[in-house]
Amino acid sequence: MLDYADLDGCVAPYKHGDECTYHCFDGFCPDPDGGTGDMATCDDGVWVWNNPPPIECKMDCGPPPMLDYADLDGCVAPFKHGDECTYHCFDGFCPDPDGGTGDMVTCDDGIWVWNNPPPIECKMDCGPPPMLDYADLDGCVAPFKHGDECTYHCFAGFCPDPDGGTGDMVTCDDGVWVWNNPPPIECKMDCGPPPMLANTNRGGCVGPFKHGDKCTYTCIAGFCPDPDGGTGDMVTCDDGNWVWNNFPMVCKQECGAPPVLANTIRGGCLAPFKHGEVCTYTCIAGFCPDPDGGAGDMVICNNGIWFWNNPPPMECKKDCDPPPTPDCASILFCNPPGPPYKHGANCLYDCDAGSTEVGGNDMLTCNDGFWIGVPLDCKKDCVAPPMPDCATVAGCIAPYTHGEVCNYQCDFWCYEFLGDNLLTCIDGVWIGTPLVCLLYCPAPPLPLDTIRSLCVAPYTHGEMCDYDCKPGYSKTGGDDMLTCNNGVWDGDELECKEDCEPPPEPEDRDLINCDPTGPPAIYPHGTGCYYECAEGYTYDSGNDTLTCNNGEWEESDEPLYCKPNCEEPTAPANTVLDSCTPPAPPYYHGAECTFKCAVGYTKVSGGDNMMTCRGGTWLLVGEQLLCAPSEYLAIAARKVTVSNLKCAQS
């Protein structure tokens, strides 16, 4: 099947050789740029096109689009796929050069397509351009097409008004002339020379003087405009006439430097000082006008001379710093209140609670920066006086005001250690060193085996007693000195233990050293002496240390035992030494040696062949080894009794 096409000339069943012809629907036609195959033939089960590829049926188009002010050419209805229509503007119209360029449409499967979208726009031609007074026209000729531009130029002796329009060109826009910058220019007449003013310089303009030119006037050096006169300082050329901006000014002479007032700041005027210039004076920071002096605070320059507004000029008096605040005093009020505290201000004072007046004035007055009067002198009261231990106080009662005196005495069981008997209240502080009364100490202790020295009764605070051990005794703890501290002896009591005699030196051991060694022949309590077995002896068990304990040498729970070594072992009869542990002397306690029958001897009885060193002696272990000459073995074979052998051996 083909889209938008009818089938003709064949019916089912379709036999070999049948031909089917295709026709586009009404309103459709074959695409001239497509295939031309419009018939298919059944060939042995396969449909074969006459001119492949097959036709494509494209839709016809409706009427082409219409353009304003344009004719259509090159196409008639019905409008088939591929038809082209061309557009032409009417007479008196032309395509807009700034618009589209599409001037042809093509029917494409039922749709009109532009060659160069967007389409052209036909714009109307214009009539003659507008005319301007005193201006020439340039750059355009009839007929005036859409987009044509005409330029205007003022006549000689005329120029565009700078305050008027700036439009100097019109453009034809679809039958209408449009200004580039509306409104259009206005050509105005030039002016002659500008007017003259006395004592001035003219600037800002040169001939020829065009409409809108401005000439400004400034006073010559040493002169300035009268502020009460005219203010016109500029003329403007207006279509051939000079026009003042205001009534013309009058130039007046300037003044020299304004007068100087002490302690003031001048403001409102700057050099050069013009006629009418006003200088105002204000007191500098920290000063104010004297209310009893002049009121003049401004001068005015009048044609070279300075005049005061209210003569005589004012006098500035210095403000005062904040009024002093004496210790223990407060300001009740100031009149007038501050800050700032102006010349003539008065401040009233009173002592604070807990303080007492002792001198000075209760009012101060500000006079040109200084407070007149002696500041009020208030002193603080004191808190309750100190109450030392072992002391009594008399001569003072609350409240304790400045100058109050307290008298102190130690109780009879105490004594004065340091400090003063009198304390005086001075501005809230008790002056003097508080009295210190301390207790006496009791008699000092005398520990066992010690000697006391350097202290005698009565024993006051700080008293020191020196202690030493008796001869033959040494220190084991405590302090060598006790100090009396407010009735109590500070320090630990000295402890002494008896020294020992030189340590013993038994035969079986040697003394190595003692710790601490101490002076020669001195062995204090706690000394440890260390031993080792003497030559020819061997360690067996126990501790190797003796300790001095309060004059006696004490051994540990297990004393040191040293055993004597053995001599070279002697072999039993008919035997020789086999081996020993250790293999060579010395043979220490516990050493072992084994024996065997000598060459030519044979074991007869006994099985043990070992001896052990015990306390310097070789002891047989078990039954003794008996060896007989080998020749007796033959006799033994002949039943020689063992007893005979023993006899023969003996």
From TrEMBL:
<feature type="domain" description="Sushi">
    <location>
        <begin position="318"/>
        <end position="380"/>
    </location>
</feature>
<dbReference type="InterPro" id="IPR051503">
    <property type="entry name" value="ComplSys_Reg/VirEntry_Med"/>
</dbReference>
<dbReference type="Pfam" id="PF00084">
    <property type="entry name" value="Sushi"/>
</dbReference>
<keyword id="KW-0768">Sushi</keyword>
<feature type="disulfide bond">
    <location>
        <begin position="441"/>
        <end position="484"/>
    </location>
</feature>
<keyword id="KW-1015">Disulfide bond</keyword>
<dbReference type="InterPro" id="IPR000436">
    <property type="entry name" value="Sushi_SCR_CCP_dom"/>
</dbReference>
<feature type="domain" description="Sushi">
    <location>
        <begin position="439"/>
        <end position="498"/>
    </location>
</feature>
<feature type="domain" description="Sushi">
    <location>
        <begin position="59"/>
        <end position="124"/>
    </location>
</feature>
<feature type="domain" description="Sushi">
    <location>
        <begin position="189"/>
        <end position="253"/>
    </location>
</feature>
<feature type="disulfide bond">
    <location>
        <begin position="351"/>
        <end position="378"/>
    </location>
</feature>
<dbReference type="InterPro" id="IPR035976">
    <property type="entry name" value="Sushi/SCR/CCP_sf"/>
</dbReference>
<protein>
    <submittedName>
        <fullName>Sushi, von Willebrand factor type A, EGF and pentraxin domain-containing protein 1-like</fullName>
    </submittedName>
</protein>
<keyword id="KW-0732">Signal</keyword>
<feature type="domain" description="Sushi">
    <location>
        <begin position="512"/>
        <end position="564"/>
    </location>
</feature>
<feature type="disulfide bond">
    <location>
        <begin position="469"/>
        <end position="496"/>
    </location>
</feature>
